[in-house]
Amino acid sequence: MAAFEIDPDIRKAKTIPSEFYLEPRFFELSKERVFARSWHLLCHENEVDGLFPATLLPGVLDEPVLLTREGDDLRCISNVCTHRGKVLVEEPCKANLIRCGYHGRRFSLDGKFLSMPEFEGVECFPSETDDLKSLPVANWNGFLFTSLDPAADLAAFAGEAKLSLLPDSDLPLKLTAKREYTVNAHWALYCENYLEGFHIPYVHKALNEIVDYGTYTTDTFRFSSLQTGFDQQGRVAANYLFIFPNLMFNFYDWGVSVNVVRPVSPCETVVEFLTYVADASKLELGAGGDLHGVEMEDEAVVESVQRGIHSRFYSQGRYSPTREQGTHHFHRLLAEFLD
Fold it and tell me: What is the largest CA-CA distance in the chain?
């Protein structure tokens, strides 16, 4: 029997039950069934010049990985030595091979074992298990992703939105800022809030003066959804792309703001904001002009929901067919992955 069932007809459906957010077993189950089978952002290709270490979804998967670049050849491999498990590369650097700083084991940049001192006479050595594990790496609009065991390729996860999402600028995107917010709420509640513009007139007064709520649209794809907000003159103010289960790409005139939602516990979440700027002259303008203020408003309402779902009088709600397609779609994917 499925853990949860969400009716595909939004007019009939009820939201995912509150036990999903409250019971630790579903939080733990999500790590392997949801996050291990999804794609996760590593960095932008402009950040990789040689060896680039990263941790795959810290606090959830906690997998040390390493991007290596040789010319146009880009790979993602395990960043853990196959001898005794030491992390191999701690900081970005340039090198023509990888050497473990613990006992001197060496690997090529594609992860193949090269040599190991003091191992003469070891039987059946080396073998394939002495190579570093290779992971898939995929490039989407310059952003690099990997996955432990993807349910589908990145193209399926990123969606089929047929529009230019990046700013109309010939300038390259540059990572200019990183910021982390701690939210006292379940990670999925934070995502649900992002996935609908229904709350904008009630929660975001300033943003509501920029975005024309009446023309706000939501399109859903297999593993993603795209929300588009238009300004009062009918121009696109922002595109909000959600990639299941926890990635948010916010496209503004100045560039791209990326939110990575990292679960900590059933009642705590860290949200990492990555700011990639193409045109700094537009940073203070439009829908992307006050991201911190909007974040504070979102956190306040999400944390209130976190308190409310503990009520003995709440279990499930209903969806607005015109305004909550993204949240309904998200719940259906959760139910599918947890089955």
Answer: 76
DSSP 271-305: EEEEEEES-GGGTTSGGGS-HHHHHHHHHHHHHHH
Residues pairing with 233 in the sheet: none
301 and 188 in a single domain? The answer is: yes
What CA–CA distance (Å, rounded) separates 244 from 195?
11
CB of 79 within 8 A of CB of 146? no
Q: In this structure, is residue 154 part of a structural domain? A: no
205 shares its domain with 311: yes
List the CATH number of the domain containing 183. 3.90.380.10
Owning domain of residue 255: 169-338
Task: Tell me what the mean pLDDT of segment 186-211 comes to.
Answer: 93
CA dist 220 → 235, 253, 333 (Å): 21, 23, 11
Residue 187 and residue 74 share a domain:
no
Element (H, E) at 332: helix 325-338
Residue with tokens 């121009």: 235
140 close to 44: Cβ distance less than 8 angstroms:
no
Residue 248 bridge partners (DSSP)? 242, 259
How many domains is the chain partitioned into structurally?
A: 2
- Structure tokens that stand for 238 in this block: 């922002």
In a domain, 309, yes or no: yes
pLDDT digits (tens, 9 = 90+) for 58-68: 999 999 999 99
336 class by beta-carbon count within 10 Å (0-12 exposed, 13-18 middle, 19+ buried): middle
- Inside any domain, residue 26: no
pTM of the model: 0.93
